[in-house]
Amino acid sequence: MISDSSFPELPITFTARGFVARMRIRLLGVWWIACLLWSSTFLFIRVGVAEIRPFTLAWARLAIALTILAPIALVRGDLRALRRVDLRRVAGAGLLLLGVNYALLFWGAQFIPSGLVAILQSATPLLALAFACATGQERFTFLKLLTLVLGVVGVAVIFGSEALKSGRTAIGGVAAVFGSSICVASAYVWMKSYGGRIPPIALTTIQSGAAVVPLLCAGFLTERMPAPQQWSVAAWGAVLYLAVAASVVAFWLNYWLLARMDASAMLMMGVAEVPIAVLLGAAVLHERLPGGTFLGGTCVLVAVVSRLVGSGSDGGQTGVRRGSGDGQIGVGPTIRQEAPNSAPYSGDRRA
After folding, report:
1. Distance (Å, rounded) from C-alpha 123 to C-alpha 261?
2. Structural domain includes residue 68
3. 36 FRET partner, CA 20 to 30 A, in 117, 207, 274, 321?
């Protein structure tokens, strides 16, 4: 018979430290997986719109994601407890965040590199700051003014650089993608004033449902009838990746991290996505951004980092939750460590 004394007792402090270390490694690993998923969405959007018309790609992505999300929301009973006013608010936000936003984003992505799409989408926190100051939700300070000026300069340099290199078509693409960022930022400021809380799975399901119908109508009215049987493996891969990996899987990782990480760590993901997206575009699609675009993008990123750092000192009132790209899952009050079964009104801000 083996006695308890046969086993050396580990100090409690040692085991606790080991557990904390393992949790930090686990959190860091999940953080990077989510970051890579969000960063790669720009690449897969570019691959998809090369063969599939933009509105068709947008509604197909949402429709496939809905076939996964809706049954989960129904089984969990998340939809039953919602009030009518909640449904109207969430559906309205979904129409803007996933309907108009996706329409502009996917259309614009046809004409500009995926890395540039990521740069323009990273400006969303700056736009949210501008709207929040304009509506009185935030106090206007000198630091915020400098941040906005630097962001405006960066966007202006990008527009000028693309005009000189690629002409009018690229300018239209830049304007559309920047317009999609405006949709996300304005919807965030609008919903922030409401301050409701609903289960995140129900949130995304309702918003996706509200957006898929108008996108479907726009696709059938303005684009040729889709022929999925003629899509290549690359096109199908892009659709499925955007619907499953970049929507459903990244969604769950996002809210898993939300309950366990500080706001600053989550918000900085939106900054980290930009160089990753640029590198992916260069490696896979051989995209090359002009020097002026890099300069403008640097100005935008510096302004975003300044904004995120400043959020910590002024109470973190404005921020785009989990910052990435196409509007997928993540507009709401600056992240706090909330229970995973409820979420601020937010939008699928991801690409």
Report:
1. 23
2. yes
3. 207
For residue 151, give the nearest of 173, 171, 177, 121 by alpha carbon: 121
Q: Which domain holds residue 295?
A: 53-337
174: Cβ–Cβ under 8 A, 6 or more apart, which residues?
108, 112, 116, 120, 158, 159, 162
Tokens of residue 256, six digits: 């898993």
- What's the total number of domains in the chain? 1
Residue 8's alpha-carbon distances to 4, 11, 14, 15, 141, in angstroms, are 8, 9, 13, 13, 59
> Over the stretch 76-86, which tens digit does the pLDDT of each residue have?
888 887 788 88
Lowest mean per-residue pLDDT among 69-78, 174-183, 260-269, 302-311: 260-269
Q: Considering all CA atoms of the chain, what is the largest pairwise distance in Å, rounded to the nearest integer?
A: 84
Residue 343 counted as domain residue: no
pLDDT in tens, 10-56: 444 445 566 556 767 888 888 889 889 999 999 999 999 999 999 99
pTM (predicted TM-score) = 0.80
